[in-house]
Specification:
Blueprint: H1 3-9, H2 18-28, H3 32-57, H4 78-93, H5 103-127, H6 132-154, H7 157-166, E1 168-171, E2 174-177, H8 178-207, H9 213-238, H10 246-258, H11 262-277, E3 285-288, E4 291-298, E5 302-306, E6 312-316, H12 317-322, E7 325-327, E8 335-343, H13 349-361, E9 373-379, E10 384-392, H14 400-417
Antiparallel strand pairs: 1-2, 3-4, 3-7, 4-5, 5-6, 8-10, 9-10
Helix pairs in contact: 1-2, 3-4, 4-5, 5-6, 5-8, 8-9, 13-14
Length: about 425
């Protein structure tokens, strides 16, 4: 049997021996290899075309952070998956045509590496914020995948794996080879990436639903934590670690939580309690420890409160459970605002009050129901003190602007009616 026949009957993903490499080099130089090269290029073109059509069709469903469809046609996971499948089919079709697979033996491991790289990078980019650690992990995964594919093609991967398997590590009474350690880390990485991917898909679906935003955040955080925990258990089992030994570790972790991690655990539990009870919701106007603002996000450990001047406060969730919190929009987002004006003692208040109410109703953001009201609040030294009350339903936009608009409208009304706005006067009597 010739080397070409052995390549025809061998697996497309099996590492090549030195004799097969020589036969592969001879096959690449033959005219029949041009047919194979054209078929591979056709597979890549078809994969690009299908991915491009699907990406345009699902442009509204998948954003730039999508794992299947990234920022570009070849940036997501869909293109290398389709190309790998088409090249695989081409590799099994070529022997039927009498053409030995040569270029396919090189293309398949490269596309498999690209699939792993695209999956890891896109999932981490979608699930985690951009950072230097994310770029470092992406580079490590890329270098490892490309190096493994090159060693695979050259037939050196089996020898390297055998050498790693010979290196034994002793962890107490447990023996673990270096190969088992690396394979466990790789399995853990793949499982955790898949868990993050599923959690990201669930979160994107939840955010598009009609549920309350706080319930969406709670369900998203719970699903992500559960999937990561299950993924960690699967990764440990795949690495050959006995999960029964984790009972001792669980007891140690429990003791650690009870002492050193008490505050951290309390914040996490408080975060789920807040989201479950809905005592605080995203968008509520609150005042905590003298800081007033709008809740912009509720994390599992802390809550972000954004003031109207742009400053943000990170409040531990435990503080929101144990301390007094003023919520201006818990049951009703409408808020009452007041302002004060003085008029002269000779003013006809019975005729003035309805006009003040009408002019306040004409100010934008002032609600008609419940409507504004005016009261005589004090007999001041220089005039009659009137307190004007009105309601707004968007306190997150601030109260200073609408109060200024009401004051300007009231001032214009009083000037047009000729109503005297007194100012402090002092009379000095000089003895003659």
């Amino acid at each position: 049997m010739t080397h070409v026949d052995s390549m025809n009957k061998g697996s497309l993903t099996r590492p090549l021996s030195m004799s097969e490499l020589e036969a592969l080099g001879a096959s690449i130089q033959k005219p029949a290899a041009l047919t194979e090269l054209a078929l591979i290029l056709l597979s890549l073109g078809v994969a690009w075309l299908i991915t491009s059509r699907m990406r345009r069709h699902h442009a509204q469903d998948f954003g730039s952070l999508s794992v299947l469809f990234g920022a570009g046609v070849t940036d997501g996971l869909m293109f290398p998956l389709l190309a790998l499948g088409l090249c695989w089919a081409a590799g099994h079709t070529l022997p039927l045509l009498g053409v030995p697979p040569a270029y396919v033996r090189l293309a398949i491991p490269l596309l498999m590496s690209l699939v792993l790289i695209r999956l890891t990078v896109r999932v981490l980019t979608a699930a985690l914020p951009a950072s230097g650690l994310l770029r470092l992990v992406s580079r490590i995964v890329s270098w490892t995948a490309w190096a493994a594919s090159v060693l695979w093609v050259l037939g050196l991967l089996d020898g390297l794996l055998d050498d790693l398997d010979d290196v034994q590590l002793h962890l107490g009474s447990t023996k673990l080879s270096l190969l088992g350690l690396f394979s466990g880390l790789l399995t853990a990485l793949i499982v955790l990436v898949l868990a993050l991917w599923i959690a990201q898909v669930i979160e994107s679906r939840l955010m598009k639903s009609s549920m309350d935003l706080s319930l969406k955040k709670m369900a998203s955080n719970a699903s992500k934590a559960g999937l990561l925990f299950i993924g960690l258990l699967v990764a440990l089992e795949a690495a050959g670690i006995d999960l029964t030994a984790l009972s001792v570790l669980g007891g140690a972790v429990g003791v650690g939580i009870g002492f050193g991690l008490q505050k951290l655990a309390s914040n996490y539990v408080s975060g789920f309690v807040i989201l479950a009870e809905r005592s605080l919701r995203i968008g509520d106007m609150v005042k905590v420890d003298g800081f007033e603002g709008r809740i912009s996000d509720i994390k599992t450990r802390y809550t972000v409160i954004r003031a109207l001047n742009g400053r943000e406060s990170i409040v531990p969730n435990e503080m929101l459970i144990t301390q007094r919190v003023e919520n201006a929009s818990l049951a009703d987002p409408r808020v009452s605002v007041s302002t004060v004006v003085q008029v002269g003692y000779g003013t006809d208040l019975a005729a003035l009050f309805p006009k003040l109410v009408d002019v306040m109703c004409g100010v934008p953001r002032v609600l008609v129901d419940p409507g504004p009201s005016v009261t005589l609040s004090n007999f001041a030294a220089d005039g009659l003190e009137l307190t004007l009350y009105f309601w707004i339903e968007d306190p997150h936009n601030g109260q200073g602007g609408v109060r200024s608009d009401v004051n300007l409208a009231v001032l214009q009304l009083l000037n047009s009616l000729g109503v005297d706005i007194p100012y402090p006067q002092r009379v000095i009597h000089q003895a003659s």
